[in-house]
Structures are given as C-alpha cells and as structure tokens.
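Running this now, will post back.
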Amino acid sequence: MKLWILISGQRALPKGRLDAAAFESLAAQLLEGFDTPEGLHPMKQGERRLLVSPHPAALQSAALLVPDGEAEVEPLLDELPLRAFGGGVLPGWLWLFRAARRAESREAAVGRCETLLDRLGEEERDCILVTHPLFAALLMDRARLRGFAAQRSGLGAIKPWERILLSRRDEHCGGCQHNCLLSNPGCPIGRDKAARSSG
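Update: finished.
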C-alpha cells in the first residue's frame, strides 16, 4: 500500500504583527481559498482512491492536482484547528506556531490519524490524500511508527503544495543512501535486491 499525501494550497500569512482577534479571523480564512501558483504538475488518479479534506482549499487543490479524479470527502483529513492562545501583538508565524501546538488535544489528533491509518490498512489500496500541513506532519509521524518511510518533495516544515509518498519500509532496498522503491530501483543494489525478492 502506498499513500500519496498532497498538501493543499492556502492563503499566505500577512506580513506584520497581529493581535489575538486578528489572528482568529485570519485562521478562519486560511483554508477557504488561495491564489493558484504557476508550474503545478497534475497527477493521474489511476486505480488509487482520492480522499480530500472537507475545507474548500483542499477541494480546489484536489481539482487542480488530480483533475481526472473522483474525490471523496474524508472528515478525518481535516486540519488541526487554529485558535489564539495568550494575548499581545505577535508576528503571524508566531501565532501560527503557538496555535498549532495547543488548539486540539494531541490525543484527539493522534486518534484521528490512527483511525484513518486503520481504515486505509484494512483496504490495502493505494490512496491519494489531499490534506493540510499541520495534519500531514502528524499523519507522517504516526505512519512512521507503523513502518512507513516518507519521500518528500521539500525540506524543513511541510508547506502548501508539497507532495509526500508514504510506503512500507520493506518495499525499499535500504542498502544505500538512495533507499529506492523495489518496484522502480534506481541503483545496482536496489536492482539486485528487487531481482532476489521477485524470484
């Protein structure tokens, strides 16, 4: 089973400092829409199931990134809620950092991830998941504990429009720094291991 996580677009944080009330109103608008970036590369759905977060930004992103796809709305892919904690006037990124750490209890968010991974594991079907940065980071962490390896298109914190492939570790060669998938090995070590495992 392979899971492609596509991070939806979202509005950029405004520059400058915000108070708690301004951040609360901004947090409600972040996932409502976005400006379409240039150079997006769509992918084909194929036989994979397409699950999308219920936010308008995720639905619009799915239409752009998987144009031939038949999307199913999955409430478990919803972003972690953002609420202002504390007071004062802070930069937008700092409000986002504080809100992401305290808005939903960790147990509830982990429970959503575990429920989703259990459901997908029962089906054993490749899926495309369109979700948001904070939830995707937690989902990657829970999948890693279940024996999945992640291949990302970016570095550092997860950003809008990033693509992540989650696949089981035993589907990788693991013999060198490439750690390529055995279904498409890119080095002699991977090709050798793929030949031995298929025969």
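The mean pLDDT is 80. More later if anyone needs it.
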